[in-house]
Specification:
Layout (H helix, E strand, L loop, with lengths): L1 E5 L6 H12 L3 E5 L9 E5 L9 H12 L3 E5 L6 H8 L3 E3 L7 H7 L8 E5 L2 E4 L29 E4 L1 E2 L10 H5 L4 E2 L2 H13 L5 E4 L15 H15 L4 E2 L10 H10 L3 E7 L3 H7 L5 H13 L3 E8 L6 H14 L3 E6 L7 H8 L22 H15 L9 H29 L7
Helix pairs in contact: 6-7, 7-8, 11-13, 13-14
Protein backbone atom coordinates (compact mmCIF):
# COMPACT_ATOMS: atom_id res chain seq x y z
CA UNK A 1 0.00 0.00 0.00
CA UNK A 2 1.23 3.49 -0.85
CA UNK A 3 0.53 6.34 1.55
CA UNK A 4 0.93 10.06 0.91
CA UNK A 5 1.62 12.50 3.75
CA UNK A 6 0.87 16.11 2.83
CA UNK A 7 1.72 19.29 4.71
CA UNK A 8 0.59 22.38 2.77
CA UNK A 9 3.36 24.57 1.31
CA UNK A 10 6.19 23.40 3.59
CA UNK A 11 7.63 20.10 4.74
CA UNK A 12 6.73 20.23 8.40
CA UNK A 13 8.71 18.20 10.87
CA UNK A 14 5.49 16.51 11.98
CA UNK A 15 4.68 15.33 8.46
CA UNK A 16 8.17 13.94 7.99
CA UNK A 17 7.98 12.25 11.39
CA UNK A 18 4.72 10.49 10.49
CA UNK A 19 6.23 9.52 7.15
CA UNK A 20 9.18 7.90 8.93
CA UNK A 21 6.92 5.96 11.28
CA UNK A 22 4.82 4.66 8.38
CA UNK A 23 7.93 3.70 6.41
CA UNK A 24 9.28 1.83 9.43
CA UNK A 25 5.90 0.07 9.62
CA UNK A 26 6.44 -1.38 6.15
CA UNK A 27 4.46 1.08 4.01
CA UNK A 28 5.54 2.75 0.80
CA UNK A 29 5.34 6.43 1.72
CA UNK A 30 5.91 9.82 0.13
CA UNK A 31 5.81 13.29 1.68
CA UNK A 32 4.52 16.26 -0.31
CA UNK A 33 3.67 19.95 -0.06
CA UNK A 34 0.86 20.08 -2.63
CA UNK A 35 -2.68 18.75 -2.60
CA UNK A 36 -2.04 15.79 -4.88
CA UNK A 37 -2.19 12.01 -4.51
CA UNK A 38 -2.99 8.98 -6.69
CA UNK A 39 -6.63 7.80 -6.52
CA UNK A 40 -7.73 5.04 -4.14
CA UNK A 41 -4.85 5.46 -1.70
CA UNK A 42 -4.65 6.78 1.84
CA UNK A 43 -3.66 10.37 2.50
CA UNK A 44 -2.55 11.87 5.81
CA UNK A 45 -2.91 15.66 5.91
CA UNK A 46 -0.67 17.34 8.48
CA UNK A 47 -2.28 20.76 9.05
CA UNK A 48 -0.55 23.34 11.21
CA UNK A 49 -2.86 26.38 10.82
CA UNK A 50 -6.54 27.03 11.43
CA UNK A 51 -6.54 28.85 8.09
CA UNK A 52 -6.05 25.51 6.32
CA UNK A 53 -9.61 24.65 7.33
CA UNK A 54 -10.83 27.61 5.29
CA UNK A 55 -8.84 26.79 2.15
CA UNK A 56 -11.26 25.84 -0.66
CA UNK A 57 -8.45 24.00 -2.47
CA UNK A 58 -8.06 21.64 0.46
CA UNK A 59 -11.79 21.06 0.81
CA UNK A 60 -12.00 20.28 -2.90
CA UNK A 61 -9.02 17.92 -2.74
CA UNK A 62 -10.48 15.91 0.15
CA UNK A 63 -13.89 15.71 -1.51
CA UNK A 64 -12.50 14.58 -4.87
CA UNK A 65 -10.05 12.12 -3.33
CA UNK A 66 -12.77 10.43 -1.29
CA UNK A 67 -15.05 10.29 -4.34
CA UNK A 68 -12.26 8.44 -6.18
CA UNK A 69 -12.10 5.79 -3.47
CA UNK A 70 -9.26 7.18 -1.37
CA UNK A 71 -9.23 7.85 2.34
CA UNK A 72 -8.22 11.15 3.96
CA UNK A 73 -7.09 11.50 7.55
CA UNK A 74 -6.26 14.86 9.12
CA UNK A 75 -3.79 15.44 11.95
CA UNK A 76 -1.41 18.06 13.30
CA UNK A 77 -2.12 21.04 15.56
CA UNK A 78 -5.62 21.51 14.10
CA UNK A 79 -6.61 18.21 15.71
CA UNK A 80 -7.02 20.14 18.97
CA UNK A 81 -10.48 21.11 17.67
CA UNK A 82 -11.67 18.01 15.79
CA UNK A 83 -15.31 19.07 15.59
CA UNK A 84 -14.30 22.04 13.43
CA UNK A 85 -12.01 19.88 11.26
CA UNK A 86 -14.77 17.34 10.68
CA UNK A 87 -17.30 20.06 10.04
CA UNK A 88 -15.22 22.07 7.58
CA UNK A 89 -13.23 19.41 5.72
CA UNK A 90 -15.23 16.17 6.15
CA UNK A 91 -12.26 13.77 6.23
CA UNK A 92 -12.67 10.09 7.11
CA UNK A 93 -11.20 10.76 10.56
CA UNK A 94 -9.08 13.16 12.58
CA UNK A 95 -5.93 11.88 14.25
CA UNK A 96 -6.23 13.56 17.65
CA UNK A 97 -3.19 14.94 19.48
CA UNK A 98 0.15 13.16 19.23
CA UNK A 99 -0.32 10.72 16.39
CA UNK A 100 2.64 8.34 16.63
CA UNK A 101 0.66 5.63 18.42
CA UNK A 102 -2.36 6.01 16.15
CA UNK A 103 -1.32 6.15 12.50
CA UNK A 104 -0.21 2.54 12.03
CA UNK A 105 -3.31 1.15 13.73
CA UNK A 106 -5.50 3.47 11.67
CA UNK A 107 -4.02 2.12 8.45
CA UNK A 108 -4.50 -1.46 9.60
CA UNK A 109 -8.08 -1.21 10.85
CA UNK A 110 -9.51 1.95 9.35
CA UNK A 111 -11.43 4.41 11.55
CA UNK A 112 -13.17 1.82 13.72
CA UNK A 113 -15.22 3.34 16.59
CA UNK A 114 -13.04 2.16 19.48
CA UNK A 115 -9.62 3.09 18.04
CA UNK A 116 -7.72 5.36 20.49
CA UNK A 117 -6.59 8.73 19.19
CA UNK A 118 -9.19 9.46 16.51
CA UNK A 119 -12.28 11.59 16.09
CA UNK A 120 -15.03 10.47 13.69
CA UNK A 121 -18.61 11.25 12.80
CA UNK A 122 -21.17 8.72 14.01
CA UNK A 123 -24.48 9.68 12.52
CA UNK A 124 -25.36 13.09 13.87
CA UNK A 125 -22.71 13.19 16.59
CA UNK A 126 -18.93 13.28 16.84
CA UNK A 127 -17.03 10.60 18.71
CA UNK A 128 -13.62 11.62 20.12
CA UNK A 129 -11.34 8.90 21.48
CA UNK A 130 -8.46 10.30 23.57
CA UNK A 131 -4.97 9.48 22.25
CA UNK A 132 -2.37 7.36 23.97
CA UNK A 133 0.57 9.57 24.96
CA UNK A 134 3.85 8.16 23.54
CA UNK A 135 5.94 6.60 26.29
CA UNK A 136 9.12 7.77 24.56
CA UNK A 137 9.93 10.45 22.01
CA UNK A 138 12.66 8.37 20.40
CA UNK A 139 11.41 7.04 17.09
CA UNK A 140 12.46 6.19 13.52
CA UNK A 141 14.30 8.74 11.43
CA UNK A 142 11.78 11.03 9.67
CA UNK A 143 11.09 10.55 5.98
CA UNK A 144 13.20 13.38 4.53
CA UNK A 145 12.41 14.69 1.03
CA UNK A 146 15.29 15.03 -1.41
CA UNK A 147 14.67 18.77 -1.78
CA UNK A 148 14.62 19.60 1.93
CA UNK A 149 17.52 22.00 1.40
CA UNK A 150 15.37 24.28 -0.76
CA UNK A 151 12.86 25.36 1.87
CA UNK A 152 13.27 28.33 4.16
CA UNK A 153 11.40 28.63 7.46
CA UNK A 154 12.66 31.71 9.30
CA UNK A 155 16.13 31.04 7.90
CA UNK A 156 16.25 27.28 8.53
CA UNK A 157 15.46 24.33 6.27
CA UNK A 158 13.85 22.44 9.12
CA UNK A 159 13.07 22.72 12.84
CA UNK A 160 13.97 19.51 14.65
CA UNK A 161 11.94 18.64 17.72
CA UNK A 162 13.97 18.20 20.91
CA UNK A 163 11.18 18.03 23.50
CA UNK A 164 7.46 18.49 24.04
CA UNK A 165 5.52 20.48 26.60
CA UNK A 166 5.77 24.00 27.96
CA UNK A 167 5.91 25.44 31.46
CA UNK A 168 3.99 28.52 30.36
CA UNK A 169 0.28 29.17 30.16
CA UNK A 170 0.09 31.85 27.46
CA UNK A 171 -3.58 32.30 26.69
CA UNK A 172 -2.99 32.66 22.93
CA UNK A 173 -0.78 29.58 22.59
CA UNK A 174 -1.81 26.06 21.69
CA UNK A 175 1.40 24.27 22.76
CA UNK A 176 0.64 23.65 26.47
CA UNK A 177 -2.88 22.55 25.56
CA UNK A 178 -1.63 20.18 22.87
CA UNK A 179 1.43 18.71 24.60
CA UNK A 180 0.82 19.58 28.27
CA UNK A 181 2.94 21.39 30.83
CA UNK A 182 5.28 18.52 31.66
CA UNK A 183 8.54 18.58 29.69
CA UNK A 184 9.24 15.34 27.83
CA UNK A 185 12.63 15.29 26.14
CA UNK A 186 14.38 13.16 23.58
CA UNK A 187 17.85 11.71 24.04
CA UNK A 188 20.76 13.67 22.65
CA UNK A 189 21.84 10.71 20.51
CA UNK A 190 18.47 10.48 18.78
CA UNK A 191 18.43 14.20 17.96
CA UNK A 192 21.97 14.11 16.59
CA UNK A 193 21.17 11.05 14.48
CA UNK A 194 18.39 13.06 12.85
CA UNK A 195 20.70 16.01 12.25
CA UNK A 196 23.11 13.71 10.41
CA UNK A 197 20.28 12.21 8.35
CA UNK A 198 18.95 15.64 7.37
CA UNK A 199 22.44 16.81 6.44
CA UNK A 200 22.92 13.78 4.19
CA UNK A 201 19.69 14.82 2.40
CA UNK A 202 20.96 18.33 1.74
CA UNK A 203 19.90 20.32 4.79
CA UNK A 204 22.02 23.44 5.07
CA UNK A 205 20.70 25.12 8.22
CA UNK A 206 18.77 23.64 11.12
CA UNK A 207 16.95 25.08 14.10
CA UNK A 208 15.72 23.35 17.21
CA UNK A 209 12.06 23.55 18.14
CA UNK A 210 9.83 22.46 20.98
CA UNK A 211 9.07 25.92 22.32
CA UNK A 212 11.78 27.16 24.68
CA UNK A 213 14.94 25.40 23.56
CA UNK A 214 16.65 25.65 26.94
CA UNK A 215 13.94 23.46 28.50
CA UNK A 216 15.56 20.44 26.83
CA UNK A 217 15.79 17.70 29.49
CA UNK A 218 14.30 20.06 32.08
CA UNK A 219 13.47 18.09 35.21
CA UNK A 220 12.26 18.70 38.76
CA UNK A 221 11.98 22.44 38.29
CA UNK A 222 15.57 22.84 37.10
CA UNK A 223 17.11 23.75 33.76
CA UNK A 224 19.50 21.04 32.55
CA UNK A 225 22.09 23.49 31.30
CA UNK A 226 24.70 20.80 30.69
CA UNK A 227 22.38 18.77 28.45
CA UNK A 228 21.38 21.84 26.43
CA UNK A 229 25.03 22.78 25.90
CA UNK A 230 25.92 19.22 24.91
CA UNK A 231 23.08 19.22 22.40
CA UNK A 232 24.18 22.49 20.78
CA UNK A 233 27.81 21.39 20.74
CA UNK A 234 26.92 18.09 19.08
CA UNK A 235 24.82 19.81 16.44
CA UNK A 236 27.59 22.30 15.72
CA UNK A 237 30.08 19.44 15.29
CA UNK A 238 27.86 18.05 12.54
CA UNK A 239 26.65 21.20 10.81
CA UNK A 240 29.06 23.94 11.88
CA UNK A 241 27.97 26.67 14.29
CA UNK A 242 27.07 29.07 11.47
CA UNK A 243 24.33 26.64 10.40
CA UNK A 244 22.66 26.13 13.79
CA UNK A 245 20.03 28.29 15.44
CA UNK A 246 18.27 27.91 18.77
CA UNK A 247 16.16 31.03 18.70
CA UNK A 248 13.04 30.53 20.81
CA UNK A 249 13.77 31.04 24.50
CA UNK A 250 11.64 32.26 27.40
CA UNK A 251 13.20 35.31 29.01
CA UNK A 252 13.09 33.57 32.40
CA UNK A 253 14.80 30.39 31.12
CA UNK A 254 18.32 31.66 30.51
CA UNK A 255 21.58 31.84 32.43
CA UNK A 256 25.16 32.83 31.60
CA UNK A 257 26.14 29.31 30.54
CA UNK A 258 23.19 28.96 28.18
CA UNK A 259 23.82 32.34 26.60
CA UNK A 260 27.51 31.62 26.15
CA UNK A 261 26.72 28.28 24.50
CA UNK A 262 24.30 29.97 22.09
CA UNK A 263 27.04 32.46 21.24
CA UNK A 264 29.63 29.70 20.72
CA UNK A 265 27.64 26.98 18.96
CA UNK A 266 24.97 28.82 16.94
CA UNK A 267 24.54 31.81 14.63
CA UNK A 268 24.28 33.94 17.77
CA UNK A 269 20.63 34.99 17.76
CA UNK A 270 17.95 34.70 20.42
CA UNK A 271 14.24 35.16 19.81
CA UNK A 272 12.04 36.25 22.71
CA UNK A 273 8.26 36.14 22.62
CA UNK A 274 7.90 39.56 24.24
CA UNK A 275 4.33 40.22 23.02
CA UNK A 276 3.68 43.48 24.89
CA UNK A 277 5.32 46.25 26.85
CA UNK A 278 2.25 46.52 29.07
CA UNK A 279 2.33 44.42 32.24
CA UNK A 280 -1.48 44.47 32.30
CA UNK A 281 -1.67 42.86 28.88
CA UNK A 282 1.12 40.42 29.78
CA UNK A 283 -0.96 39.28 32.77
CA UNK A 284 -4.02 38.93 30.55
CA UNK A 285 -1.93 36.88 28.13
CA UNK A 286 -0.76 34.60 30.95
CA UNK A 287 2.89 35.23 30.09
CA UNK A 288 4.08 34.79 33.66
CA UNK A 289 6.76 37.46 33.28
CA UNK A 290 6.92 41.25 33.28
CA UNK A 291 8.30 43.70 30.76
CA UNK A 292 11.14 44.42 33.19
CA UNK A 293 12.09 40.72 33.20
CA UNK A 294 12.35 40.76 29.42
CA UNK A 295 14.32 44.00 29.43
CA UNK A 296 16.85 42.50 31.85
CA UNK A 297 17.09 39.37 29.69
CA UNK A 298 17.83 41.47 26.61
CA UNK A 299 20.64 43.21 28.50
CA UNK A 300 22.09 39.84 29.52
CA UNK A 301 22.03 38.66 25.92
CA UNK A 302 23.81 41.78 24.77
CA UNK A 303 26.46 41.25 27.45
CA UNK A 304 27.21 37.93 25.73
CA UNK A 305 27.36 39.49 22.28
CA UNK A 306 24.10 37.98 21.06
CA UNK A 307 21.63 39.51 18.61
CA UNK A 308 18.08 39.69 19.96
CA UNK A 309 14.81 39.51 18.06
CA UNK A 310 11.37 39.82 19.57
CA UNK A 311 7.77 39.13 18.66
CA UNK A 312 4.87 41.37 19.62
CA UNK A 313 1.12 40.80 19.53
CA UNK A 314 -1.32 43.68 19.05
CA UNK A 315 -5.09 43.80 19.05
CA UNK A 316 -5.53 41.64 22.13
CA UNK A 317 -9.08 42.16 23.42
CA UNK A 318 -9.19 45.04 25.95
CA UNK A 319 -5.79 46.39 24.78
CA UNK A 320 -6.03 50.14 25.25
CA UNK A 321 -4.16 53.03 23.63
CA UNK A 322 -2.16 53.26 26.87
CA UNK A 323 -1.16 49.59 26.63
CA UNK A 324 -0.12 50.06 23.02
CA UNK A 325 1.98 53.11 23.89
CA UNK A 326 3.73 51.03 26.56
CA UNK A 327 4.71 48.55 23.85
CA UNK A 328 6.03 51.34 21.61
CA UNK A 329 8.04 52.70 24.54
CA UNK A 330 9.46 49.25 25.26
CA UNK A 331 10.61 48.84 21.64
CA UNK A 332 12.20 52.28 21.66
CA UNK A 333 14.22 51.46 24.77
CA UNK A 334 15.16 47.88 23.79
CA UNK A 335 16.63 48.59 20.34
CA UNK A 336 15.97 45.03 19.15
CA UNK A 337 17.90 43.69 16.18
CA UNK A 338 14.71 42.42 14.58
CA UNK A 339 11.01 42.64 15.38
CA UNK A 340 8.00 40.59 14.30
CA UNK A 341 4.52 42.00 14.82
CA UNK A 342 1.30 40.04 14.55
CA UNK A 343 -2.36 40.53 15.31
CA UNK A 344 -3.78 38.37 18.11
CA UNK A 345 -5.13 35.17 16.52
CA UNK A 346 -7.89 33.40 18.47
CA UNK A 347 -6.83 29.79 17.88
CA UNK A 348 -9.78 27.54 18.77
CA UNK A 349 -9.71 25.93 22.22
CA UNK A 350 -7.33 28.55 23.65
CA UNK A 351 -8.34 31.01 26.39
CA UNK A 352 -7.87 33.83 23.87
CA UNK A 353 -10.54 32.25 21.67
CA UNK A 354 -12.96 32.26 24.61
CA UNK A 355 -12.09 35.87 25.36
CA UNK A 356 -12.84 36.83 21.75
CA UNK A 357 -16.14 34.97 21.90
CA UNK A 358 -17.04 36.87 25.07
CA UNK A 359 -16.01 40.25 23.64
CA UNK A 360 -18.74 42.29 21.88
CA UNK A 361 -17.85 43.06 18.28
CA UNK A 362 -17.81 46.81 18.99
CA UNK A 363 -15.04 46.24 21.56
CA UNK A 364 -12.92 43.87 19.49
CA UNK A 365 -10.05 45.87 17.93
CA UNK A 366 -9.86 43.36 15.08
CA UNK A 367 -13.44 44.15 14.05
CA UNK A 368 -13.76 47.92 14.42
CA UNK A 369 -12.34 50.59 12.07
CA UNK A 370 -9.50 52.66 13.46
CA UNK A 371 -10.25 56.28 14.29
CA UNK A 372 -6.59 57.21 14.44
CA UNK A 373 -4.07 58.55 11.95
CA UNK A 374 -4.43 55.55 9.59
CA UNK A 375 -8.20 55.77 9.20
CA UNK A 376 -7.81 56.90 5.58
CA UNK A 377 -6.21 53.53 4.80
CA UNK A 378 -9.38 51.68 5.80
CA UNK A 379 -7.72 49.62 8.54
CA UNK A 380 -9.20 48.10 11.65
CA UNK A 381 -7.74 49.18 14.97
CA UNK A 382 -5.67 45.97 15.18
CA UNK A 383 -4.37 46.44 11.64
CA UNK A 384 -3.46 50.06 12.35
CA UNK A 385 -1.51 49.10 15.47
CA UNK A 386 0.28 46.29 13.64
CA UNK A 387 1.20 48.69 10.82
CA UNK A 388 2.29 51.46 13.19
CA UNK A 389 4.38 49.17 15.39
CA UNK A 390 6.16 47.59 12.41
CA UNK A 391 7.33 50.98 11.16
CA UNK A 392 8.06 52.23 14.68
CA UNK A 393 10.35 49.24 15.36
CA UNK A 394 12.42 50.00 12.27
CA UNK A 395 13.35 53.38 13.74
CA UNK A 396 15.03 51.76 16.74
CA UNK A 397 16.94 48.88 15.20
CA UNK A 398 20.71 49.21 15.64
CA UNK A 399 21.27 49.51 11.92
CA UNK A 400 19.72 52.31 9.90
CA UNK A 401 16.35 51.40 8.42
CA UNK A 402 14.55 53.75 6.05
CA UNK A 403 10.82 53.31 5.46
CA UNK A 404 10.66 53.56 1.68
CA UNK A 405 7.46 53.46 -0.37
CA UNK A 406 8.15 49.78 -1.05
CA UNK A 407 8.51 48.98 2.65
CA UNK A 408 5.41 51.02 3.48
CA UNK A 409 3.40 49.10 0.88
CA UNK A 410 4.81 45.75 2.05
CA UNK A 411 3.82 46.44 5.67
CA UNK A 412 0.39 47.60 4.57
CA UNK A 413 -0.18 44.49 2.48
CA UNK A 414 0.94 42.26 5.35
CA UNK A 415 -1.31 43.84 7.99
CA UNK A 416 -4.31 43.68 5.67
CA UNK A 417 -3.61 40.00 5.04
CA UNK A 418 -3.32 39.36 8.77
CA UNK A 419 -6.49 41.31 9.47
CA UNK A 420 -8.46 39.31 6.91
CA UNK A 421 -7.10 36.04 8.32
CA UNK A 422 -8.01 37.01 11.89
CA UNK A 423 -11.54 37.97 10.90
CA UNK A 424 -11.97 34.69 9.03
CA UNK A 425 -10.79 32.68 12.05
CA UNK A 426 -13.07 34.74 14.30
CA UNK A 427 -16.02 34.02 12.01
CA UNK A 428 -15.14 30.31 12.23
CA UNK A 429 -15.16 30.48 16.03
CA UNK A 430 -18.59 32.05 16.11
CA UNK A 431 -19.99 29.49 13.67
CA UNK A 432 -19.07 26.62 15.99
CA UNK A 433 -19.02 28.10 19.49
CA UNK A 434 -20.38 31.61 19.40
CA UNK A 435 -23.41 33.77 19.77
CA UNK A 436 -25.80 34.82 17.05
CA UNK A 437 -24.31 38.33 17.03
CA UNK A 438 -20.83 37.23 15.93
CA UNK A 439 -18.71 39.17 13.42
CA UNK A 440 -20.34 37.45 10.45
Amino acid sequence: MHVTVISPDIYTYGAMLIGGILREGGYDVSVGRKYAAPPSETVFLSLYSTLHLLDPRLKDFISRHRERGGRCYVGGPVSAYPEIVLGELEPDAVVVGEGENTVLSLLQTGPVPDLPGIAVREGGRIRINPPEIPASLDRPIPLIPDDIGTQDIRGANVYIETHRGCLGSCTFCQVPRFFGHDIRSRTIDSVLAEVRAFKEKGMRRVSISGGTGSLFQYENGTLNTAAFIELLSGMADIMGSSNISAPDIRADCINDEILEAIKKYTIGWIFFGIESGSDRILRLMGKGITAATVSDAIDECRNHGLSVAGSFIVGFPTETAKDFQATKKFIASAGLDDVFVSIAEPIPETPLAKLVLDTPQKDNPSCVPTKGEYRSLGLTESEARCFDLSMHADMYKPRLHVVTDQIFDAYLTEVRRQGTDIRNVTDLLFRYYGRDDGPG
